[in-house]
Amino acid sequence: MAIIERPSAEIAVAGAAPSGVKPSEALGVFKRPAASTSWKDWLVTVDHKKLGIMYGVAAFFFFIVGGVEALLIRLQLAGPEGKILSADQYNQMFTMHATTMVFLFVMPMVSAFANYFVPLQIGARDVAFPRINAFGFWCWLFGGIFLNTSWFLGGAADGGWFMYAPNSSTLFSPSHGIDFWVLGLQITGIASLTGAINLIVTVLNMRAPGMKLMRMPIFTWMTLVVQFLLLFAMPVITVALFLLSFQRSFDATFFDVAAGADPLLWQHLCWIFGHPEVYILILPSFGIVSEIIPVFSKKPLFGYPIVAMSGAAIGFVGWGVWAHHMFASGLGPVSVAVFSMATMAIAVPTGVKIVNWIMTMWGGKLSFTVPMLFAIGLVVQFTIGGLSGVTHSVAPSDTQQTDTYYIVAHFHYVLFGGAIFGLFAGFYYWWPKIFRKQLSESLGKWNFWLMVIGMNMTFGPMHILGLQGQPRRMQVWTEARAGEGFFNIGFWNRIASLGSFILAVGVLLFIINIIYTHKSKKVAIAPLDPWDARSLEWMTANPPVEHNFDSIPTVNNLDEFFHRKYAEDPNTHEVRQVATAEEVLAELNAHPDEHIHMPSRSYWPILVSLSLPIICYGLIYNRLLMGVGAAFLLLTMFGWAMEPSTAPDDDFDPPAPGEGGGHTKELAPLG
Amino acid sequence: MITTSSKLFYGLGAGSLVASIVWFIANDGGSIGSVALLFAAMSLVFLGAIASFTRDGHVLSTDTASHASSGAAQRGVRNSIWPLGTAIAMGFVVVGLISSPGIFKVGIGLLIAMLGEWMIQNWSERGSSDAAYNTKIRDYVVHPLELPVGGALLLAVIVLSFSRIMLSLSHSAGPLVFAVAGAVILAFGTLVGFRRSVSTRVIGAICGVALTALAGVGVATALDGERPELTKAAEEDHFAHRPCGEEEEEADENASQSVSAKSSVQATVILEGGMLYAEVDGFEGAQQSITLQRSNPSTILFINRDAEPHRMVVKYGKVVEDLGGGVERETELEACTSKVEQDGQQAVTLTVPKPSYASEEPFEITVPGVEGTKIDLVVP
Amino acid sequence: MNKSPRRRIMAAVGLMAGLVFLAGCAKDAPQDTWQPAGPNAEQIDNLQQPVFLVAGIVGIIVFLAVAFVVIRYRDRGQSIPEQTHGKPALEVTLTVIPVLILIGVAIPTAGTIFDLAKTDDTEMVINVTGQQWWWEYDYPSTGANAESYGVVDPIVTSGQLVIPENTKVLLRVTSRDVIHSYWIPKLNGKKDGVPGRVHLLRLEGSKPGIYAGQCTEFCGLSHAYMRMETVVLNRADFDAWVANQLKPYESPAEGTLAAEGESLFIQQCSRCHQVNGLTNADGAPIIAAPEQYMVSGAAPNLTHLMTRNTFAGAAWDLLTPECRDDVWNANTEEFGARYLAGVSAECLNQKDLREWLRNAPEKKPMYADPTKLQATDGKYRGMPALGLTEDQIDALVAYLLERK
Amino acid sequence: MADTALAHGADHGAPHTTTGLSNNKLGMWIFLGSECLLFGGLISTYMLYKGRVSAGPQPDQIYDIPFTSVSSFVLLMSSLTMVLAVSAAHRRDDRNTNLWLTVTALLGATFVGGQVYEFTAFYREGLGFTTSLFGSSFYTLTGFHGVHVTVGIIMLMALVGMVRRNRIPGSKAETVELIGLYWHFVDIVWIVIFTLVYLIPS
């Protein structure tokens, strides 16, 4: 077998150079980057696994940023007439908390898992467009950094993450915060769109032989649904953001009421994007949980086709419910009734999933590892969030609840108790696959329980706060209107603030767990298949080699890996082990493919994406800088277009027997 | 590779970047200085990159073998147009200095481009003794800039020239010329496509001549100016004030029927059977009086059920501006739709600055040409 | 490890039950959504209570199922279970049940939506206009307003909306700048005031009293300080209130502190704040010009300031806490009289009012720093600091106390 | 711009895919699906706002239907020449591929020139970007389309260069076809815009 990833040094610049001149010397520094183990490789890599890890690390950083913002908000509200933050700072804080958590934590963390595991789960060697994948990551990262530089450049956006017009126009928000917000989201939007195209093509086109759609793991299924949602939702918000930035930067009149504009245009565009966005955030966690519960129940997912199809159904119906965010916005009664009914309808496929998870566990052999605990936590907490969601699908009831803390409670149960618990389940579940070591189970349990207690203490009381009439986005609450008795609004606010710090300690324990696991000598390398898992990603080396599979497996079953390890007696239904994971892997690797061509590293993704924040700074501060950025963009895009994705055939070393791809020096032409 | 001189540039660049950030923080977000410093940083890094790229101009400083074979010593010097280009650019600069800053800026840009090309060519010609190879490495370096910029310029020349020509043609001749242009391109393509014997050189020549002609005519027409109607329209700006009397005007046949999409207007004013009445959300039946809030942008929709076209006029007092020196200017405040055909509808959005009781003239909605019917406007 | 899942489930169930219980515990929250005081809010309440109940029952069933599964099927060394992929009949059943429940919820929901949107039984119409960060109310002098309720001239007020008892009032809600939302939880759900649009909201109070509310659509810097109250009066008291609002202006007696305050008001305040009937030295009426100074082009009308109990967007009380309690806690019969008494000199909340006059933007966050108004061409959003001396404040307070 | 992971074994000349469509083509189709929503949003904005003219001219006061019809026709013809380019590419006829690509680009450039003319003329007649809601939404919608055409022209020119130098990785015919897909899409969008914006009375 020869894994050939690097071009050889022997090739000249498309034709013979004069003798004595080595092209690598004549061509200056801009060579195609070579494989290396140094930090530089992370900048030029196109490997989906490395990009997945980078997504994860950076997203977790933003999780901490968003978490600190949340803690500041809760500190401000811990007592009456809070003085920690000024009104202006408070408004920036909750705007950026939501923006960070949605666009810079959950979405990219989902990209992290999807990037890393979708190719592994479908038996592919990489994604369909590896360089575009890298480009997407850098766009997202630079967009996120750009967005957050606003803190240091005159203040962040202060219009709320929903950014309702006309409060977002320069008249009402004169600082540059919203400009940063709009442009930053445009840049991260490019990442979402390219990522969506990439993963859709990957899933549709690059499945291993025998991997029919209905044999795909549910996580891949949910990723596919989510990418379609992104594909169609991103352009809508892109239009809205363009309208807003034209309004702010070029005095367009889109939201100028004196010129006859209708501010509801923004709300419609925002929520046509915004509601599918909710499913974009939650469905991947459903996918993760649907992977984990069968593994730790030792049973296949109950009603697999229904779970897959209900995910798709949520994706479809999710397009028809956006106006339930606008029940108080002055729609006519007919629209309100229609959207109210549609919202109730979407509860059905969601409920189906919960039923199926419980039925999967029913009759199983349950082991309560940390990933399983987080998964069960999701089932319970998401149920609470889902049921409170049903209470405000009842539109008249929603007119009492909307824009109160009841809504805050609802969507934190859905997004924290649901989406983030799912992600944490994923962290614990897949950690040994990615990083070779298993996170400590005992620390993990502390982590889980503190998060459960903190989460319910923080967001549980918010139900009461909302029903007792405390609106959202309030910089202060006053004792004068907190009501009488001990359990008044003030009491529940204090409890919520206390809970948020318990929650923070829980998250801190996760970080401590990581450090402990990787620093401590006592933690051994994890076995190949620590959980007795069921899907293809575990049928790889630990961690997976760059090309994932030495030979592509042929898939005959749902839960292929499980079926290679276990055999079931057709009559007695007795299940017994026939092979260990090591044996399965050894068998798969016995006949490796020859000539595996992996895509070559490239400078261009990071360089092209670097030009975008330059253009955006230019738009805000100086149009000349915009020109510089545009020139840079043009140059780098040309470089990209001229570079073959994989260095051509004759650029490769002949297979070196027994060596498996030596560390050869490389060169590929730039122009 | 980090060469000696690039270290200097990179260092200065990093310094400027830090200075830029410091400036920003020190000046509480003051932008001009830091943008300037940021520019400096970017330019310096760019220069550093060129220095790295060209290895300080020492192509083969490490390659003793090729020094020995004296390949680099025998320079394959080629003809160069860059000195000429530089001279022309300098001409632009000088002319620009005398005449207009626009030409000056073009000249400076051109000068930088030409000097850059010249420099790169010089560098490439010291690459080896092989002219073809030298051309290759030159192209390798400059093509990423030359090709996109050249392409963009080509496109800009075609688009701009063409649009200038169109602007100078008469309103009726425009579409004709446009159609002819399309047809010529198509015919040319068809001809060449089917006559395979035509040589590339001939095609290139034809294209070159056509392009030059297009650019020439474009410049000529641009200098000549746009067609008189357009200049006149720009001067008169006849849409700036909408007539509010009984005047006729053209093009109202389909007066904004989509306005009905706008729900929740403040009031709908309807002319029917010679009577004017209003429908107001929340009030039952036809109203003869509308209450509007002061300073509130309010949209009023007009529906004409009369067979004749009519317009609605809203009068809401006057403003008195103090122009200084005891001179005052009174402006009547009125808003009106354009003339609306039968069953057409159109909205006006107006903001009433003063309450109605403060005005001597009544605030009212009327339809010119239909006497004896009006709607009172109350602004508390 | 054996016990933990069970504990967790118990905790979750306990929490849910606790939530329901404790929500009832905190009595007298002024904006409680579960204590309707008018037919509209009651209709919503009658709809939502069963929904909450059903949701609670479904939740508890799910928790019990999870608890059962977690306890019953945990790994006790049993053999690997049969690899079953599902039972279609069971799946269909478990899908149909929620569908049926939701249909049961959907039908009354639709009915209520259309009921609450009815406008043909309206008895009174009031325009409600939001701006940063207070509400203006104007009572049009047309139709039933004039004929049945004696509103022969438009009434403009702010902060507290006054409506007659058991009357179907229709609010025409709009906004002058950004989106606000009008919400009196005990009387009805909320409705956004969107600039350029008019939205209709029914309001009806079945018992005299004051009902608090708050702007619920994020509207910028001082969103937290944008409050409102709706006062329900019985018919006789309401007529008295209308008559008082239409009463002609009386200047303070010559030589009093209040007269000094009047001239100060004319100099300093009447640029933006209208006091109906106030005249110049030459007898010409003074028309405030907020459109020149304010982004929203409006400022509260202060003609009858002291008939209201609140100021500055209903963020602070004009009454001292004791006097406020007297009004708020009055029984149904006495309430009207106490409310109509307005703010007396003894009851005036001097502290907050003086702080406000001294430096308004310090008390309530507003865009009123004259050096930072480039984006708005120098126009304010909110009241600027006027730099008044203590003597001037004394005079102004004396003048304002007479605005009844 | 084409980018492929050769992930399925040795046969990297024509990588095996599950659907049989190449990754690039599938990717382009999916991208165009997303673009539909982009133009959908812009067209909706225009349809909402086209009648809202509080100042300046109204749509039917400035539209020059004969001119726009001709320019639409020119753009349609460019779709025809694009088809010829694709068919030439399938026949591996580099000369005519390049010829028709160039002609397509020229027709596209003519269209963009026409749009620049139209914008200038409208501006002179009093319709600025900030004049009214109609102005803002008209320029935004047609401007976005113009930018798409321009990007298409740039891709066509780059393609001509790459065909000449044999720099196209993978299949030449497929790359031409991909750009062709994009070009046809932009044309179809224009047909929709022309109908909804210009022909259907405001």
Query: In terms of structural class, how would the helical and strand content of chain C be classed?
Result: alpha+beta
The overall pLDDT of chain C, averaged over residues, is 90
Spatial extent as radius of gyration of chain A: 26 Å
CATH architecture label of the domain at 3-38 and 601-651 in chain A: Orthogonal Bundle
Order of helices and strands of chain A: EHHHHHHHHHHHHHHHHEEHEHH
> Which oligomeric state applies?
heterotetramer
Count, helices of chain C: 12
Percentage of residues assigned to helices of chain A: 55-70%
Q: Specify the CATH homologous superfamily of the largest domain in chain C.
A: Cupredoxins -  blue copper proteins
Biggest interface goes to: A-C, 118 and 103 residues
Please, how many helices of chain A? 19
Overall morphology of chain A:
globular
- The domain tally of chain C reads 2
Side-by-side strand order of the widest sheet of chain C: 3-2-1-5-8
Distance between the termini of chain C: 71 Å
User: For the report, how would you describe the main beta sheet of chain C?
Assistant: 5 strands, mixed
CATH-scheme architecture of the largest domain in chain C: Sandwich
Structure description:
The complex is a heterotetramer of chains A (671), B (380), C (404) and D (202). Among the domains of chain A are: 3-38 and 601-651, Helix Hairpins; 536-597, no CATH class. Helix content of chain A is 61%, strand content 1%. Chain A has helices at residues 23-26, 39-44, 48-76, 87-122, 130-149, 177-205, 218-250, 264-297, 304-317, 333-361, 370-393, 395-401, 405-435, 441-467, 489-519, 560-565, 581-588, 604-621, 623-642; strands at residues 3-4, 566-568, 575-577, 596-597. A two-stranded parallel sheet of chain A has the order 1-4. Chain A has a two-stranded antiparallel ribbon with strand order 2-3. Chain B folds into 3 domains: 4-58 and 73-151, no CATH class; 153-230, no CATH class; 257-378, Immunoglobulin-like (Sandwich), CATH 2.60.40.420. The model of chain B is unreliable at 66-76 and 251-261 (pLDDT under 50). Helix content of chain B is 49%, strand content 16%. Chain B is built from 9 helices and 9 strands. Chain B has helices at residues 4-26, 32-53, 64-68, 82-98, 101-125, 131-168, 173-194, 200-224, 228-236; strands at 267-272, 275-279, 289-291, 298-304, 313-324, 327-336, 345-350, 364-367, 370-378. In chain B, strands 3-9-8-5-6 form a 5-stranded mixed β-sheet, with no helix packed on it. The longest helix of chain B is centred in the middle third of the chain and has 38 residues, at 131-168. Chain C is α+β, with helices and mostly antiparallel strands and 404 residues long. Chain C folds into 2 domains: 4-15 and 29-72 and 85-116, Helix Hairpins, CATH 1.10.287; 122-404, Cupredoxins -  blue copper proteins (Immunoglobulin-like), CATH 2.60.40.420. In chain C, the strands form 4 sheets. A 5-stranded mixed β-sheet of chain C has the order 3-2-1-5-8. In chain C, helix 2 packs antiparallel against helix 3. Chain D has 202 residues and is mainly α. Chain D contains 6 helices and no strands. Residues 1-14 of chain D have low confidence and may be disordered. Classes of the chains: A mainly alpha (671), B alpha+beta (380), C alpha+beta (404), D mainly alpha (202).
